[in-house]
Amino acid sequence: MTVDLLAAIFGFALVTAGTPGPNNLMLMASGANFGFRRTVPHMLGIGLGFPIMVFLVGVGVMQVFDLWPLSYTILKALSVGYLLYLAWKIANAAPPEATEATGRPLTFLQAAAFQWVNPKAWSMALSAVTLYAASRDIPAVLWVAGTYVAASLISTTSWTVLGQQLRRLLKRPGTLQKFNLAMAALLVATLIPVLWPAGG
Fold first, then answer.
1. pLDDT at position 99, please?
2. Which of the residues 17, 54, 118, 153 could staple to 145 if both were Cys, CB 3.0 to 4.6 A apart?
3. In angstroms, rounded to a whole number, what is the distance separating the alpha carbons of residues 37 and 161?
């Protein structure tokens, strides 16, 4: 693994992990509704769960789609359904005072498992392996997955802090409700490329 190639992988990982998508929108909403500390398990679930997904995709999961194309359609349907459910939960989130007592952000395991029904995560994993570990040998796949650990640390922290800072501006329940509705709408909007791909 050359320095130039590693820099290219890190740049790709940072851009793809840092741009808006289901993970980052949910982190921002969690930061606004629950604060940074309570969102840490969610952050770690993404930061470790996605690189594990990249590794598993690189060493064999991609072949499942080749052997059984229907599995990709089933995965897409499950992803859409679960994202719509999460959007509904965000849209109906209680004010901070209530969430402190009753609300719960995603746990580490829930966030890690979510990667497997996250359309953007699948797109990122398949693209990263195809571009930077085309041979699918374990060392190359490990480099790609490891790079995503570092990129995810930066990305998850940034989006959660952004949400936490917004929390100060969302003191009134009505303002927070509008923010949550906007986050839910944006989360649903991330499904547009999945349901209506360009040129499809």
1. 47
2. 54
3. 10
In this structure, what are the phi and psi dihedrals at residue 134, rounded to the nearest 5 degrees? -60, -30
pLDDT for 1 equals: 67
* Cβ atoms of residues 9 and 144 within 8 Å: yes
For 58, which DSSP code?
I
Q: Is 50 exposed, middle or buried (0-12, 13-18, 19+ CB in 10 A)?
A: buried
Residue with tokens 């800072």: 165
Nearest of 30, 47, 48 to residue 39 by alpha carbon: 30
Question: What is the reported pTM?
Answer: 0.79
Asked whether the beta carbons of 143 and 9 are under 8 A apart, the reply is: yes
> Alpha helices of the chain — where are they, by DSSP H?
3-18, 22-34, 36-56, 62-67, 70-91, 96-101, 108-114, 119-132, 138-169, 173-189, 192-195
Q: Which residues contact 162 (CB under 8 A, 6 or more apart)?
A: 28, 31
The count of other CB atoms within 10 Å of the CB of residue 172 is: 10
Amino acid at 76: K
> Are 106 and 114 a contacting pair, CB within 8 Å?
yes
> 10-residue block means of pLDDT along the chain (200 residues)?
85 90 92 94 97 92 77 77 81 61 82 91 87 86 95 96 87 77 82 65
- Residue 24 Cα to chain centre, angstroms: 6
| Residue linked to tokens 């209680």 | 94
CB 99 within 8 A of CB 163: no
